[in-house]
Specification:
By secondary structure, this protein is of the alpha/beta class. The chain has 17 helices and eleven strands. The structure holds iron/sulfur cluster.
Length: about 400
């Protein structure tokens, strides 16, 4: 047990009751999480986040940190919505708007495949030109050529939009996309669930109840998904805890979330900077640690390096995160909003970041089957290594 954790367990410590719950694996309540956010004791919060992560991972994997060799593919940035925090979407083609034709989608996928990626993360704006047929054709074409690549695509917001465009149910939309090759869903589009924040940010898309319903339907159809939370858009700590608890309830119901990803807003190209509080490094590390403690039914918490930056993402590993996301290839969404992180990281750089923070780099696939543990021999492309067969799907 670490020294800060031992100290936190002493009865006189202001967080001792929460520390005991974390050590015993007892579920934290709303008030517990608020007290953690109100505490300035970052060392204790880090120790508690790590303890929660240790319990979740088990003794064999407590030092494992996952990453994936993947690429992002954004078929369009044209969007009918106008969320105030978004710098990615473009209302018109004149204003740098684009829609990739099928051959260009395939060209980008082929470039990723040539680099040996095993996941395509594909999300885009809500664009009537990219209807359900567009995605069915694109998914089928990608899968025909690159069967081994996992297709993680379609936020709940996109599913909601395509369903309304087509006049069919969420379930029917998902079934058609799964038949075309959809393997899992990313977590984007959750933002902050609280309606008052969404109203101020002109978020008219997919409300919380629909976001959660669509993920639940996907889980029941047999596909996994991720969940996100966007901070720096005028939310309070109460809104953040409420957001996490709604996700925890959904996970209790359908159990298909793989990972929780705290995100921060970048402001370039938006007009909101003067009316919101930009999250500090302190806030972002607390989001990681507290989400690790509160989301006791999520297996993984991600330190998304493209947003946190490589250095803060490394530190987040000692606050309870166990995943650094991917090598990415080329990121457009956060960089459109002013992120100055690199556009991509080589596998070697990713492994160096993890190892130099004191953890063991583990290359995974989208659903957390292990492909390679650093130090082991590389696996044949497309198949998990033998050591992974027994420890798959952590
Ligand atoms: S956040 Fe999504 S829905 Fe909102 S404007 Fe940007 S791309 Fe469109």
């Amino acid at each position: 047990m670490s020294l800060p954790l031992e100290k936190a367990l002493v009865a006189s410590h202001p967080l001792s009751d929460i520390a005991s719950k974390v050590v015993d694996g007892e579920r934290l309540c709303f008030d517990d999480a608020i007290r953690l956010y109100q505490s300035a004791d970052l060392v204790t919060i880090a120790a508690l986040g790590c303890q929660a992560r240790r319990r979740k991972a088990g003794p064999d994997k407590e030092k494992w940190v996952y990453y994936i060799h993947n690429m992002h593919l954004n078929p369009t940035n044209l969007c009918i919505e106008n969320c105030r925090f978004c710098s990615y979407a473009s209302p018109t083609e004149k204003n740098k708007g684009y829609t990739l034709p099928l051959d260009k989608v395939l060209e980008e996928a082929a470039a990723g495949a040539a680099l040996g990626i095993n996941e395509i993360h594909m999300v885009g704006g809500l664009n009537p030109a990219c209807d359900l047929k567009y995605y069915e054709v694109a998914f089928r074409a990608i899968k025909e050529r690159f069967r081994h690549i996992h297709l993680k695509s379609m936020t709940a917001v996109e599913i909601d939009y395509l369903s309304r465009l087509e006049g069919i149910s969420y379930s029917q939309t998902l079934e058609r996309l799964i038949a075309a090759g959809l393997d899992s869903m990313p977590g984007g589009g959750a933002e902050i669930f609280d309606e008052s924040v969404r109203e101020k940010m002109a978020v008219k898309k997919t409300p919380a109840s629909v976001y959660l319903e669509i993920h639940g339907i996907a889980h029941n159809l047999g596909i996994k998904s991720n969940a996100t939370m966007l901070t720096g858009i005028g939310e309070s700590i109460e809104h953040k805890v409420d957001h996490m608890l709604r996700l925890r309830e959904q996970q209790d119901r359908t159990g298909g979330f793989l990972c929780f990803i705290p995100l921060k807003c970048y402001y370039e190209g938006t007009d909101i900077k003067d009316e919101v509080q930009e999250p500090t490094g302190y806030d972002l590390l607390k989001d990681v640690a507290i989400s690790r403690m509160v989301l006791d039914n999520f297996d993984h918490i991600k330190a998304y390096w493209i947003q946190l930056g490589e250095k803060l993402a490394q530190i987040a590993l000692s606050f309870g995160a166990d995943d650094m996301d991917g090598t990415i290839g080329q990121e457009k969404i956060t960089h459109a909003a002013g992120a100055d992180t690199p556009l991509k990281l080589a596998k070697e750089s990713m492994e160096y970041l993890i190892a130099s923070a004191g953890y063991i780099p583990v290359e995974r696939d989208t659903v957390y089957n292990v492909r390679r543990i650093a130090g082991d021999k590389p696996c044949a492309s497309g198949t998990p290594c033998a050591c992974a067969q027994s420890s798959a799907s952590v």
